[in-house]
Amino acid sequence: MPNAILDPTGGAGRVPAAAGPGQTGDLVLAPRRRGLTGAKVGLLVNTKQNADIFLEEVGKLLVERHGAAGILARTKAAFAQPAPECLLKELTTECDVVVTGIGDCGSCSASAVADGVALEGHGTPAAVICSDAFTGSADAIAGLRGAPGYQYATTPHPVAVLTPAQVRDRALTVLPDVVALLVDPR
Amino acid sequence: MPGSGSLDPDLAQQAIEYCYQQDWSDGLPLVPVSQPLLDRFLAQTSRGPQEIIGSLEATGRDCTVELAAINAAMAGCQPEYFPVVLAALEALMAERAARGGGWQSTSGPAPLIVVNGPVRGELGFNAAGGVFGPGFRPNATVARSIGLIVRNVFGVKPHVLEQATQGLPGRWSICIAENEEESPWEPLSAEGGQPAGASAVSATLLRTCEFVDNRHTQDPQQLLWDFADTISRTGALIFRDTSCGVVFCPEHAQLLAAAGFTKAGVRDWLIEHCGRTGAELRRAGKDGVSENNVRFAADTAAVKGDGEAGGDGFSRILPSRQHVPIVVAGARNAAISMVVRVFGLWSGTAVGVETRARARAGRKG
Q1: Which of A27, A39, A41, B300 has minimal Cβ neighbours within 10 Å of its Cβ?
Q2: pLDDT band at B364 (very low <50, low <70, confident <90, very high)
Q3: Which residue of B lies nearest to A139 if distances are taken between CA atoms?
Q4: What whole-number distance in Å separates Cα of residue B17 and Cα of residue B24?
Q5: Looking at the whole model, is its pTM more than 0.90?
Q6: Do A9 and B24 touch (CB under 8 A)?
Q7: Which of A73, A62, A71, A72 is nearest to A37 (CA)?
Q8: Best of A1, A3, A6, A134 to disrupt the B interface by mutation (most B CBs within 10 Å)?
């Protein structure tokens, strides 16, 4: 018998492919509200260029148009890394739903989705917003976090170069997708 | 090593193709690794096979000594190189960018690995002509080992978690030995805290390398201005500040040293003179600086929060000596040096290379 060829991945093999729409692997999504009336909305801003304006506008629209009761905006210090546990704890304790983003680079798209999955695990519905150029990275990290097929909202690339007015337009455009991720009206 | 007549190229090709099919390769053929080859690698270190020597939080993956050895062997390393691979990985894991999102970044940064000390000669690392490669097995395969570890152990692959927009030439092939014999200055490893004469590895991540060809002047000021022009180009400026090193060829280093420049003196000169005026930054849309220290076009975007529009004055871009690592490498045959554009900030740490004697003693103990 010849010697076996050794596996350099430690058995981890391939990054799992994303499952189909609606499937979320092992992850049980947080229970959804029927609507956002009276809901406290957390914003987890990742410091990518224009992320603050984008999320603040989404928050404002959720209050004005969907009856949300208030906003709690928090910023994570390192966009490339998943948010620290204490920050996630604060958001899930204080807020009914959380919006996070913008996943607009290789590492921050992955970490934004990782944050979304973690928030769901804490029992808080989350809407992650990524640039549509980073769905490969976003889907892959969802698979690694036990949530293949995890749904998030996308906005067209690029985001960083937009003017504040253009960013606010983007917030308006993505708003229905964000709401659809956060509530279950049935 | 048996003669070529007793080797079976057809079997070797099948084994190489098997490795491709497993999606383990960076695109080039891999050495298929068997247990006896792995054992020869593990015999080079006193560390246990299951010891964890690097982790990537984003993917939740750990790199053990054994996995590093399999990837180093696949990369084409000889077993004797393995302590250098271990030191290079440890040096890289000291970089914040490498522990964070660096491997996933759109900038696709390349490790810069610098080898100092007697191990250079013992293993045949190239410190002279063509130091950035190719052509030298230790330089080429140590650097490639890191790429395979990132791919196979950390699970960061192109088009998936690795999102490099264009990447850069030589991403997994930049491992240079310092030309200590022709350098007028102390080796990089000494700055990284290693004793004189010790074998050590330093590493950081690079955005790119850019040559400065100046065989035109003996005036150190003119020479340094030529470097300042490349270092100060606006295309490389993303944040308020940047970090940028120089791999000096021996001729440039010796010219500067003869004029009285220490390494610190070169750094201080570059810190003082590298930068751009407000008008130049505005012309490139990078005159504003946000509260996160990211540059933006202050003309077209509202100044946000604590962000500031650029004035018309001269903005320096290298904040401290730590932001300007200096190495000497290459041949003494021409005055051509390399500006190396650091992704993040070099940790300033050099990692010692375990010697064979220490590995043997460690295993007995």
Answers
A1: B300
A2: low
A3: B160
A4: 11
A5: yes
A6: yes
A7: A62
A8: A6
ipTM of the complex: 0.92
Separation between Cα atoms, residue B364 and residue B355, nearest integer Å: 14
Per DSSP, A161 falls in state T
Whether the CB of A6 is below 8 Å from some CB of chain B: the reply is yes
Residue B327 sits at the vertex; the CA angle it makes with B324 and B330, to the nearest 5 degrees, is 140
**Is the pLDDT assigned to residue B357 strictly greater than 90?**
no
> What is each CA distance from B242 to B119, B308, B314, in whole angstroms?
32, 18, 15
Q: Which of A 58-97 lie inside 8 A of B, CB atoms?
A: 78-82
**Does A165 lie at the interface with B, CB-CB under 8 angstroms?**
no
Residue A19 has pLDDT above 60, yes or no: no
**Nearest chain B Cα distance for residue A77, angstroms:** 10
A46 has a chain B CB within 8 A of its CB: no
Beta bridge partners of B114: B176, B202
Place of tokens 């996943």: A103
Rg for chain A, CA atoms, rounded: 17
Angstroms from B50 CA to nearest CA on chain A? 11
> Does the structure show a pLDDT above 90 at B359?
no
Distance separating alpha carbons of residues A89 and A75, to the nearest angstrom: 14
Token readout for B298 is 């202050």
CA distance A35 to B252: 69
Sign of CA pseudo-dihedral B128, B84, A107, B298:
negative
Q: Provide the pLDDT for residue B25.
A: 98
Which of B15, B57, B100 shows the shortest C-beta gap to A5? Answer: B15
CA of A159 vs chain B CAs: smallest distance (Å)? 13
* Strands B314-316 and B275-277, bridge-based pairing: antiparallel
